[in-house]
Amino acid sequence: MNQRPVADLSGLPTFGHGPRSPTWWGTLGFMALEGTGFALAAGAYLYLAMSWPNWRLSAPEPNHWPGTIVTLLLIASLVPNHILNRYAERCAIVPVRIGMVVMSLFGLAPLVVRWFEFPALNIYWDTNAYGSMLWVLLGLHTTHLITDVGDTIVLTVLMFTRHGYSGRRFGDVGDNVFYWDFVVLTWIPIYLLIYWVPRLG
Amino acid sequence: MSSADLTSERDLPQRETATEGDVAPEHDGPRDTGMDDASLHRWLARAWRTPPGIIGALSSVDHKVIARRYLITAFIFLCLGGLNAVAMRIQLSGPQRGLIGPDLYNQLFTMHGVTMMFLFAVPIVQATGIYLVPLMVGTRNIAFPRLNAFGYWVYLSGGVFAWVSFLLNMAPDVGWFAYVPLSGPEFSPGKRADVWAQMITYTEVSSLAVAVATIVTVFKQRAPGMSLDKIPLYVWALLVTSFVVVFAMPAVMITSTFLILDRLVGTHIFNPAEGGDALLFQHLFWFFGHPEVYIIFLPATGMVSSIIPAFARRPAFGHLGLVLSLIAVGFLSFGLWVHHMFATGLPKLGASFFTASSMLIAIPNGLQIFCWLATLWDGRPVIRTPLLFVFGFFFIFVIGGLTGVMLASVPLDLQVHDTYFVVAHFHYVLIGGSVFPLLGAAYFWFPKITGRMMSERLGRWHFWLAFIGFNVAFFPMHLVGLWGMPRRVYTYPAELGWGNINLLISAGAVLFFLSFVLFTFNLLHGVLKGVPAGDNPWDAGTLEWATSSPPPSYNFTRIPIVTNVEPLWAERDALPVATGLRVDVRELLISTVAEAHPDIREKSATPSIWPLLAAIAVGGTFLYSIFTPWAVVWGAVPIAVTLVGWFWPKGDPEDEE
Ligand code: HEM
Ligand SMILES: [Cu+2]
């Protein structure tokens, strides 16, 4: 087909942050589907809780402290996370490197505490359905956490190589920040569901 | 094999060394501005080609190459699922035939169901989208091309896994929806139900990956000027479908994961004896399962909306109405799942709500049909094979819809639940609503994909054989269902008098199967001997017809600019295009979500073997996990390694900007 040029794209930039970049939308898509998974797992928990009048099925209360410490750590991590984001938008390599190291540590810390969280549930997954659901919910979020921490660490290493200093990488850092927010956000309802909802009943 | 091999034959521009500073470095290379067509083709072909050799082929990230593989694979699964069906129909063609015993029969109908739903119907509509959506929105590749390639490999391994299990007499035998307690640890010892659970996981991972890639392609890669009101209806249909996938498929992954946990590590989620609940399985499954029907059906409506305007010779009547119905159907599809559970004794009020919503969805569907008829009425229809299949779709789907409305009323459903009436109903909906439009689409887009036409004469024979065969096979099922024949039985006694009608059904099934043999012949004949098609054999209006047939690896020499829903009809003399993109690397245009204003010159990923390796790691983990839960721990290592390999930059200019 014949063509007639009517527009010139040569002046456009080669990368953009946030909703301008396709990766941001891809990340949002994955959040949507993972969020749906979490919501359905939580829904399954509530469905079972409402089907059984004696829910918690005479299991002991979980010890909430490890979970509470994880919660506090996650909330605290949001501060450096957003400082990191600002540097990434400005493409400032040195502060971004420092920020990535900090965020890797902030990712590992809750994972360490998480190790103690499973026994603190005070029930096994195969004791009864209540125990199964607690382990499933905590397991889901732990998988989530491990994947994102792994991703953060790899990206941190990458930022220290010669590939780090490029617009695309700064965009990746921004998306990593965005995803971490989501990891923190999904934890809050799960935390409430595991440790506080059973206490209501 | 290193990535240097993949790029060695390219003229890589000298990379500027990055200097420290607060602005990321800019690289540059030759642009297409003012370049003559021959050199432009040479540059772009070099930047976008799939590398030669086996490793090159396995590394391909070209959406057309991946889509072609997807289409062929899904078609093979259709044939395999069809063979299952023929085997069942031979067994049922007379009373008390001894060809197939109950155990094999259970595997046959389960394999038929899962193959058709998870390995054929969903993948083939997504594959069609992978091929067409980037072309229709005027871009050079799908978003996240490596994710897309990964999706294909995971799908392939899931399908092979299921069918190898079948050959090993290990195929699932619990029906395509594998209800507990039948599929639970107590009543299904052995590995068969685990195979069901994990093949679901494979195929859903791949559908989800493709859905995300499709959504982002439509949101961010549309040609300049293609604002929301100028997006082709087919693309809208795939967009809505992809959203339905994103919100529905996690439900079935949760279901299959819970099931495998119950079976493998002793959780009690579905076990009422320990505080679990068996109906929870049904809720979770159908929260996915009903939208699944629309995941299959919505893209088919998109195909119909492309075919009708091309042959009616006018733009679709009520474009906005069609878009709004698509969106409405997408939303409503999530409010219907309980109508699959009327026979479980739900509270009356709940059941009435779901009856009402099941009837409500007929409104947007009816509106779509009205708009199509109006388009044909007002146009000057040219009757060719694709349009014949659309007529077949109207006829069959309307019958399926009518029986659907009947089934939505609880008293009737309770009578015919689990009989052949239901089998007839869902084949009218699935085959009428999806297979007929797909066959029409095959005739319609075959010239674009291969550059050649399929035979029109064989096409007409094919249509009539399929239409008659289908109705002979499935219409009598309504009757035999009303007479009380249950589904999923491997035989029936002669005294019931169902012999003759079943023989007729089986004859119809064989005819219908033969129509696919004819179709295959027509496909092969077209590929080898078809008349050359040219760019736009139907004189259609959307962008995929603006490029050559088959399209070059880079799709368009220059990014088109869109001024109308049917851009090629609006710009008959010369297509307005944009210039200024680099030609030495894979560069494409990112635009804004609503208005499609040009925004960024983005690099598209280069070929890579890593998606295949990652899929092998993921597939191996799923396979291993039906034997031990530790698979998840050990499998994490190769998965992590392959993902790092995938994302680690190799120094291509595409990685750096
Ligand atoms: C050659 C064409 C086909 C024939 C002759 C055929 C025949 C059958 C028969 C006889 C059954 C019932 C088995 C029983 O309950 O004992 C069945 C079940 C089923 N079919 Fe088909 N079918 C065909 C194509 C398709 C297609 C294209 C789809 C989907 C897109 C499909 C989806 C299903 C499903 C989901 C079931 C239910 C399986 C179960 O009960 O678990 N079929 N088919
Ligand atoms: Cu339904």
Explained architecture:
The complex is a heterodimer of chains A (201) and B (657). Chain A has 201 residues and is mainly alpha-helical. Helices cover 74% and strands 3% of the residues of chain A. Chain A has five helices and one strand. In chain A, helix 2 runs antiparallel to helix 3. The longest helix of chain A has 34 residues. Chain A is elongated. Chain B has 657 residues and is mainly alpha-helical. In chain B, 63% of the residues lie in helices and 3% in strands. Chain B has 21 helices and four strands. In chain B, the strands form two sheets. A two-stranded antiparallel sheet of chain B has the order 1-2. A two-stranded antiparallel sheet of chain B has the order 3-4. In chain B, helix 6 packs parallel to helix 19, helix 8 runs antiparallel to helix 9 and helix 13 runs antiparallel to helix 15. The N terminus of chain B is likely disordered. The interface between A and B is large, with 63 and 82 residues. Bound molecules: protoporphyrin IX containing FE and copper (II) ion. The site of protoporphyrin IX containing FE has 24 residues of chain B, from helix 4, helix 5, helix 15 and helix 17.
Short summary of the structure?
Chain A has helices at 22-51, 65-89, 93-120, 129-159, 167-200; one strand at residues 3-8. With 201 residues, chain A is mainly alpha-helical.
